[in-house]
């Protein structure tokens, strides 16, 4: 069986890095990926795909990318579910990224980073611990 996903798209916001209680870095982000066809109006639509990246790769990905950056990720598709505070079952489908590539020149990325910071000065809030069930970890 094969479960491999390769996506090229733009980050919809800066990567949010948090740490588990045991200190493992977890980065969450969303990619806007253009569809290969146009709609009836002749416009190209995009899918917004949620992804997660773990450990040192999460820290590196957050440090070297920013909102609007063109990136490629490779990983696997994962589905999971949990019960929220109201007792509702919540289903999540996301890409668990194993590898990433930066697809822009550094100077292009710096220009976009400056624009991103100017439009959203609170995008990089501090790291906050999150509760994660150890059974959900991919290792």
Alpha-carbon Rg, integer: 16 Å
Mean pLDDT: 83
Strand order of the largest sheet: 1-3-4-6-5
Q: Give me the number of helical elements.
A: 2
Characterize the largest beta sheet: strand count, sense, and whether it forms a barrel.
5 strands, mixed, barrel
- Backbone shape: globular
Can you tag this structure with a few keywords?
alpha+beta, 5-stranded mixed beta barrel, 17% helix, 6 strands, 139 residues
Could you describe the 3D structure shown?
The protein is α+β, with helices and mostly antiparallel strands and 139 residues long. Helices cover 17% and strands 46% of the residues. It has 2 helices and 6 strands, in the order E-E-E-E-H-E-E-H. A hairpin with a 5-residue loop joins strand 2 and strand 3. The longest helix has 14 residues, at 106-119. Mean pLDDT is 83; it is low at 113-131.
Question: How would the blueprint of this fold be written?
Answer:
Layout: E1 5-11, E2 16-19, E3 25-38, E4 44-54, H1 55-64, E5 70-83, E6 89-102, H2 106-119
Parallel strand pairs: 4-6
Antiparallel strand pairs: 1-3, 1-5, 2-3, 3-4, 5-6
TL;DR?
The chain has helices spanning 55-64, 106-119; strands spanning 5-11, 16-19, 25-38, 44-54, 70-83, 89-102. It is α+β, with helices and mostly antiparallel strands.
């Amino acid at each position: 069986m094969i479960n491999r996903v390769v996506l090229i798209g733009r980050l919809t916001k800066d990567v949010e890095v948090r740490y588990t209680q045991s200190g493992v870095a977890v980065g969450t982000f969303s990619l806007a990926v253009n569809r290969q066809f146009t709609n009836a109006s002749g416009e190209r639509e995009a899918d917004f795909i949620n992804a997660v990246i773990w450990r040192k790769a999460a820290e590196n990905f957050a440090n070297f990318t920013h909102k609007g950056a063109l990136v490629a990720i490779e990983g696997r598709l994962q589905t999971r579910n949990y019960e929220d505070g109201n007792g509702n079952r919540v289903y999540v489908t996301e890409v668990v990224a194993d590898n990433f590539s930066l697809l822009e020149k550094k100077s292009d990325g710096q220009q976009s980073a400056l624009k991103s910071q100017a439009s959203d000065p609170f995008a990089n809030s501090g790291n906050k611990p999150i509760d994660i069930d150890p059974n959900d970890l991919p290792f």
